[in-house]
Specification:
With 410 residues, the protein is of the alpha+beta class. 54% of the residues lie in helices and 19% in strands. A six-stranded mixed barrel has the order 2-3-7-4-6-5. The longest helix is centred in the C-terminal third of the chain and has 43 residues.
């Protein structure tokens, strides 16, 4: 403690006295409150670190799963993409794209779904999409001209298996009304991305949709696959400068932007609410320091008569409280990181106590977690800042008393 304090420019005498107070063998109620403050800080920071890391994990999984099947960028209104678009370093691949809204008809009922058409280039870019057995799902789509892939939950809902007929009803505006059109496909397989598309998406071949005239019942264009999907909105202005004026560009943010913004707001609100726990623990440090200052009034008065400056006395009590705060925050960060890295085991223990699974009925099979250095630094700075602000008042209180009055008081 003394070496670190010297590096920060604190007087050696202040660090020595603060160390004596911190590790004194005499234990009273003030020492008990000191340990309570340490435990409160460690627990608050641990909870904050763990929850933020788990929310990072869910955010990462949500983004990865939704954007694994959804188009990153769609360009409409152009027959061919300029070569400059393919040459952009952000673009991994480009393929033909069709999207329409339809109705899946089955003897067990019907449901609305999105029909998406992809070509061979799109199939290669979507090669990461797997079926329930962990095998690539897209190759099955190109095994026949009338094949379709359905999300696994959609197929399970209607009890459909590979080889079953799939009847899709498409609709388009004709004159003053709507013209329905029924198309028959064969279920070639299912896919599972672990998100909404598993229940709402059907994949067909683009050339099949084109041959059947389905492009008049939906929107056709080009689909761009990016190396960094989250950068899609920022790439739109660059594409607008390359493409002709009649081109229309949309990104995943136009469909899922509201959802991701809601997730960010939820994360921010949760961070602020859990930071209040750390603030309450910081208030305990105030109580501890106030009791210590009251207990050491005579010592401070004697030091003052021996020539100790007011700033030296304030530094002594500030360092003593700061050491407790730093130890609590550091321990909380370490425990939080360990808990976040073993979130599955921690949740399993909680589920054992509750007798129920927390993630039943969701797309997740385990609790995702992602520890980010930036979050740890922010938590440490805010927690230490709250503690430092809480410590100033008790530390400055000792400088406001007259040594003569303290020494002559009973």
């Amino acid at each position: 403690m003394q070496k670190q304090a010297r590096r920060l420019g604190f007087p050696p005498a202040a660090t020595w006295i603060a160390r004596r107070y911190l590790f004194a063998r005499r234990h009273g109620y003030a020492a008990f409150v000191n340990w309570v403050s340490f435990a409160g800080l460690a627990l608050g920071v641990m909870i904050l670190t763990t929850v933020v890391s788990v929310m990072n994990g869910f955010d990462r999984e949500l983004v990865g799963r939704l954007l694994s099947a959804s188009p990153h960028l769609i360009v409409r209104g152009v027959a061919e993409l300029p070569a400059q678009v393919d040459a952009l370093p952000e673009v991994l691949a480009a393929g033909r794209h069709y999207r329409g809204e339809g109705l899946l008809l089955h003897r067990y009922g019907s449901t609305a779904l999105t029909v998406m058409g992809v070509d061979a280039a799109g199939g290669e870019a979507l090669a990461h999409i797997e079926d329930e057995d962990g095998m690539p799902a897209l190759p099955r789509l190109f095994e026949g001209p009338t094949t379709v892939l359905l999300g696994n939950r959609l197929a399970e809902t209607f009890g459909m298996s590979i080889g079953d007929p799939v009847v899709l009803t498409m609709a388009s505006a004709q004159g003053g009304g709507v013209e329905p059109r029924m198309e028959r496909f064969v279920l070639a397989g299912t896919f599972a991305v672990g998100a909404e598309p598993d229940s709402t998406l059907a994949l067909v071949r683009y050339d099949d949709a084109l041959a059947r005239g389905l492009t008049s019942h939906g929107l056709a264009g080009w689909r761009l696959f990016l190396a960094e999907p989250l950068a899609a909105p920022a790439l739109v202005p660059k594409l607008e400068s390359i493409l002709p004026d009649e081109a229309r560009i949309t990104s995943w943010a136009d469909r899922y932007g509201g959802l991701f913004r809601a997730v960010k707001i939820e994360k921010a609100m949760m961070f602020v609410l859990l930071l209040l726990i750390v603030a309450l623990a910081a208030f305990n440090v105030v109580s501890c320091q106030a009791m210590l200052v009251n207990e050491k009034r005579a010592d401070a008065a004697i030091l003052s008569t021996m020539g100790a400056s007011r700033s030296l006395l304030a530094t002594v009590f500030f360092l003593q409280g700061a050491a407790v705060a730093a130890a609590g925050v550091g321990s909380g960060l370490a425990l939080g990181v360990v808990t976040a890295l073993h979130a599955d085991a921690a949740i399993a223990a909680v589920e054992g106590l509750l007798g129920a699974s927390i993630i039943d009925g969701t797309y997740f099979r385990s609790i995702p977690s992602e520890v980010q250095i930036g979050d740890l630094v922010l938590i440490a700075l805010l927690s230490l800042g709250l503690c430092a602000a809480a410590l100033l008042r008790p530390a400055l209180r000792v400088t406001a008393e007259d040594p003569a009055d303290v020494l002559h008081s009973p």
